[in-house]
Amino acid sequence: MTGTFHIYIYRSGSDARGGAASGAHARGGAGAAGTAGNDRGGAWPAGVPRGAARPAQDGAAPAASPPPARPGEEPVVAGIDLGGTKIALGLVDRQGQVLAGRTLPTDAPSGPAAAMDRIAAAVRDLAEEAGRRPQAVGVGAPGPLVLPEGRFAGTPNLPGWNGFALRDQLAARLGLPVAVNNDANAAALAEARLGAGRGAEVMVYVTVGTGIGGGLVIGGRLFSGVNGNGVEIGHTTVDPDGPSCGCGNRGCWEAVAAGPALGRLATERLGPPPGRPGGRWTARELLDAAAAGDERARAVAEEYARLLGIGLASAVNLFNPDRLVLGGGVMARYPLLAPAMEAEMRRRALPANLAAVTLVPAALGKDAGLVGAALLAWDLLDEPAPRR
């Protein structure tokens, strides 16, 4: 017996100005309510500034009002790119310019509460040094997450953080509205509005590094799914009998084609790297060797690029984008990987969809996640205040 299986994706609302899609973020809990900061010389008042609390939508925690900017001061927000090993944060204006920034270690084993303490202290220090008070905070964090509260839901890169409500905990420490989304979604939003995806009607962003993540932006609006995990393209199955994945499945595209998979493939094909008997290749070592003209390394890179192309074909078939943007650490070698990767994608994707899509490297580099997180914060500020 045969039949037809259809998948439909509906997006609530028709506003394409660039806000995040419904459910992608919500106003964060402020903890205690009080008065906004004063205008003494420092950018951040003594103690922690507390905005007057407003009722939040849909039963979420009370939302903090942002502290008013001083006369003549251009408003800024704080963007935070939270990774498994490091945290990048910065003050960002409405044009997406990072005015001041810093990086600190995640120190995941110390636990999420300690990490939130370090982040809050770093945001306050950065505001003091720059003389600018952030109006809100946006966070891009590794998934899976449960939105809008930004609760970790078994994130492989942050073991022991499961169930921690990032949004509310950070808002309580800073007294500011906080928006949270998946880190790949945040980077996708930045590339769509400010980077390689500008002008696209449907943009798919794929990031390839220690994992593979994805984001979908339609008409300037981020599509996150019901609870924030709508475009986990790295966890689509490409080999049912393939290697185990951190998500618990087998043969995910991430397990087969993320950076660590390239290191394993290189070690299988080439043996130990030169000068390291018994050692294992890393993705960077293999790609550097291939770029330097090592023919054996180049052959492995081409084999790996075809694995990337298989997943990209699925993205083209599923979402029918006019722009497919590739970012992440592995894509620093985009020119090396692109020919075999694109050839495999074109061999497998639907011709009609291929005719519409352009494959391009990301433009914002390592700042994409931080800037995208800041855009989440700006979108949060631009939302109308909830009705009482």
Automatic annotation (TrEMBL):
Residues 15-25, 35-63 have a biased composition (Low complexity). SUPFAM superfamilies: Actin-like ATPase domain. InterPro entries: ATPase_NBD (IPR043129), ROK (IPR000600). Keywords: Kinase, Transferase. One of its GO terms (molecular function) is kinase activity. Pfam families: ROK. It comes from the Bacteria. Residues 15-75 are annotated as: Disordered. Belongs to the ROK (NagC/XylR) family. This is Transcriptional regulator/sugar kinase.
